[in-house]
Design goal:
Largest sheet: 4 strands, antiparallel
Keywords: Isomerase, Rotamase, Signal
Pfam family, one: SurA_N_3
Strand content: 5-15%
Protein name: PpiC domain-containing protein
Organism: Lujinxingia litoralis
Structural class: alpha+beta
Number of domains: 2
Number of helices: 12
Oligomer: single chain
Distance between the termini: 27 Å
GO molecular function: peptidyl-prolyl cis-trans isomerase activity
Order of helices and strands: HHEEEHEHHHHHEEHHEHEEEHEEE
Number of strands: 13
Helix content: 40-55%
Length: 419
């Protein structure tokens, strides 16, 4: 798929609803979580993935109020005379606190406190509006959004690693998705979310370069691992094992797929070592160079990478091509609908704010002075925190190459940057 079916978890909708994810340079966090999970997946295999899943399902540890950067002792605001309670506010603070350093500049604490009050107010405005309109999300609605979000990750271990990074479990994500689904239904009924066909065609014509697929190959591989820091004896043992399998793979009539299932020590073993289609930059250089120099059905000699010894079978080659409008129109519509949804949400929030009488109760919020640092103590890499309703910046994000969504998920042990 050319575009991610981006749900607004961690972005405008969930941030404003006070859910588990608050926008905080989410693209970098997701990238870091994915890289960490990839390395762990390679190191631990199925047992590690199962452990990740169990941890992701567990309830995150609750931070005591006195350990938070600030907390509410009573309602933080009144909206048209009705109170915005402390519990909602403190839950939002806990989600932010899990990603803050031990010391935070006093000015930053004041900014965070003001932002969180605004988030709590937005949460109240949106939730009360949806309740009055009797908007309900079905299990099917939630499952659809949850599955679309999970499919953004190459495997379950990476998905669970991201949840741990964000201080979430799957039940919390589903709760956020239910809010998303209710809000999307309301926006649809109030404003409409249809994307005109001519807008899709215009976008395609103006961004043709985004739909160009590079030269790609499809390959299978068998991996015999060599642990980091392994001594000469361990390397020799792994090489000898790989050499025996290589002789089987090159024998006449050999079933490479079956051999991969039986002998490979990489995450792709259950699917016969199949890596799907990939471009030259998607694998570590040693692997990519050999794969792109092969012909269909050819089996390589041993290929050494930092992960161990690989035996590669090339399955298919395909030349670079530009996807047609028919091939990508559904993906473009998803992207344009996402952008429309964000704009309409901003409009919706503005209308709610302008139509409400709001009184903020700052005296009911206590700041943890032990966390307050002076300006010259500003820690490096302080996370960027967005104002309520803003979309977190997606720095460096690019649309995947044409057809990327139809390839099998890559083996993380072969991706550049994996360790």
């Amino acid at each position: 798929m050319l575009f991610e079916k981006r749900r607004l978890i961690g972005l405008a909708l969930v941030a404003a609803l006070g859910g588990g994810v608050v926008a905080c340079d989410s693209s970098k966090q997701e990238e870091a979580a994915t890289e960490n999970a990839a390395a762990e997946d390679e190191a631990t295999g199925e047992e590690g993935a199962a452990k990740d899943e169990a941890q992701a399902q567990a309830e995150p540890e609750e931070i005591p109020l006195e350990k938070l950067p600030f907390h509410a002792t009573g309602p933080v605001a009144k909206i048209d005379g009705k109170e915005v309670g402390a519990d909602t506010f403190n839950d939002m603070v806990r989600q932010r606190a899990s990603r803050l350093p031990e010391r935070v500049p006093a000015q930053m604490l004041d900014m965070l406190k003001a932002q969180t009050v605004d988030l709590a107010i937005d949460h109240y405005l949106v939730e009360s509006t949806l309740e009055e309109a009797n908007v309900v999300a079905t299990k099917e609605d939630v499952d659809k959004l949850f599955n679309e979000f999970r499919e953004r990750f190459p495997n379950e271990a990476m998905f669970n690693g991201y949840l741990q990074q964000m201080g979430l479990n799957q039940e919390m994500v589903r709760e956020n998705m239910a809010r998303d689904a209710r809000l999307e239904k309301y926006l649809e009924s109030k404003y409409g979310l249809e994307v005109p066909a001519e807008d899709v065609e215009t976008y395609y014509n103006e961004h043709t370069e985004r739909f160009t697929r590079p030269d790609e190959v499809r390959a299978r591989h068998i991996l015999i691992k060599v642990e980091r820091g392994a001594d000469d004896e361990a390397v020799a043992t792994a090489r000898a094992k790989a050499q025996e399998i290589l002789e089987l793979a090159k024998a006449e009539g050999a079933d490479f797929e079956a051999l991969a299932r039986e002998h490979s020590e990489g995450p792709t073993a259950p699917r016969g070592g199949d890596l799907g289609f990939f471009g030259k930059g998607r694998m570590v250089p040693e692997f990519s160079e050999v794969a792109f120099g092969m012909e269909p059905n050819q089996v390589s000699d041993l290929v050494r990478t930092q992960f161990g010894f690989h035996i590669i079978q090339l399955v298919e080659k395909r030349d670079a091509a530009v996807a047609t409008l028919d091939e990508v129109k559904d993906d473009i519509e998803v992207e344009l609908r996402h952008e429309l949804r964000v704009r309409l949400f901003q409009r919706f929030l503005t209308e709610l704010r302008e139509g409400a009488t709001v009184e903020k109760l700052a005296d009911n919020i206590r700041v943890n002075q032990e966390m307050a640092a002076s300006a010259d103590e500003m820690p490096p890499g302080m996370p960027q925190l967005n104002l309520p309703g803003q979309v977190a910046p997606q720095q460096g994000q690019k649309a995947p190459a044409a057809g990327a969504g139809r390839q099998l998920k890559l083996d993380p042990s072969l991706q550049p940057g994996a360790k």
